[in-house]
Amino acid sequence: MRLKEKVAVVTGAASGIGKATVRRFVEEGAFVIIGDIQRELGEDLSSEMGHKATFKYCDVTDEVDVKELMKAAVSTYGSLDIVMNNAGIVGSRGPISSTDASEFKATLDILLYGTFLGIKHAAPYMEQQKSGSIINIASTAGVTGGLGPHVYAAAKHGVVGLTKNVAAELCRSGVRVNCIAPGSTVTPLVAAAYTNDHEAIEEVSEIVKAKSPILNRPGMPLDVANAALYLASDESGNTNGHCLVVDGGLTTGSTPNDPPHSDAMPFLRQAGQRGL
Ligand code: NAP
């Protein structure tokens, strides 16, 4: 019961990482508002959670929707303690010279502007109660280059920057702002990105497993949900402006294959295969 009686809002909560987070938060005693544009999936998840979660339609690029989403937490469950700005898409892809300008802006709108709106409309409630935890979902593509499409990488770097800057402002009110940078995680978004079929979860699980630095261990939505649980709970009370990378070590240089110029790695790999 690490979130006993806390009230959370999660955006993009009807699928993937958001859905796993709703389930994890409810298991730990929270009440959750499920915000998403996927009405049917959101309502199904709400029914699964009983009175502990409520679906509310929210397009994170619509300021009125986002404002109403935060208000719904207070009117339904009495407070707003945790907000996870998670809604996302892969968005515009391809070489920079052929990237469509309007698609670039539309992708930024969901990934960065949507996160800004979530923070903006959560902050007043949290500042007033002098506590709260805001968790923004960035990506490994937001902490280093070459791991995602151009606009996705730009938006996610923006999410990391916004997190640190707002953390420096809101800490004076007792409100913490952190982000999580997941590596490839088995969700419909990644299934669609790798196979063009958002339902190809088993197939994408094998692809993600092969790309993961950790032997036989694909990144799963629950890995990110557990990181969010830590940042949401009082256990992370002194953690602020932090970007928690959940990628099996990929961005630190670990790879599923031996990196060049390292004599140590073959030994380490053999040790890993022996389960040491
Ligand atoms: P997902 O399974 O597709 O879930 C994202 C949810 O957000 C979907 O229900 C999606 O609906 C919804 N959404 C899209 N646009 C929205 C909008 N304007 N307003 C409200 N909801 C909207 O994807 P996921 O992999 O769990 O991704 C969650 C977050 O993690 C994203 O921010 C993503 O960038 C980030 N992330 C994911 C990975 C990964 O490998 N999976 C890695 C790093 C970061 P539709 O399906 O209709 O678009």
Give a written overview of the molecule.
There is one protein chain. This protein has 276 residues and is an alpha/beta fold. The protein has a single domain (7-274), classed as NAD(P)-binding Rossmann-like Domain (Rossmann fold, 3-Layer(aba) Sandwich). Helix content is 47%, strand content 14%. It is built from nine helices and seven strands, in the order βαβαβαβαβαβαααβα. The chain has helices spanning 16-27, 39-49, 63-77, 101-129, 150-170, 188-195, 201-211, 221-232, 264-273; strands spanning 7-11, 31-36, 53-57, 82-85, 132-137, 175-182, 243-246. The chain has a seven-stranded parallel beta sheet with strand order 3-2-1-4-5-6-7, sandwiched between helices. Strand 4, helix 4 and strand 5 form a beta-alpha-beta unit. Helix 3 (63-77) runs parallel beside helix 4, helix 4 runs parallel beside helix 5 (150-170) and helix 6 (188-195) packs across helix 7 (201-211). The chain is globular. The protein binds NADP nicotinamide-adenine-dinucleotide phosphate. NADP nicotinamide-adenine-dinucleotide phosphate binds next to helix 1 and helix 6.
Major beta sheet, strand line-up: 3-2-1-4-5-6-7
**What is the count of DSSP helices, taking H or I runs of 4+ residues?**
9
Distance between the termini: 34 Å
Q: Beta fraction of the residues?
A: 5-15%
Q: What would you report as the Rg, rounded to the nearest angstrom? A: 19 Å
Q: CATH homologous superfamily - what is it?
A: NAD(P)-binding Rossmann-like Domain
Helical residue percent?
A: 40-55%
Mean pLDDT: 94
According to CATH, the fold-level topology is Rossmann fold
Number of domains: 1
List of distinct ligands in this structure: NADP nicotinamide-adenine-dinucleotide phosphate
Shape: globular
Largest sheet composition: 7 strands, parallel
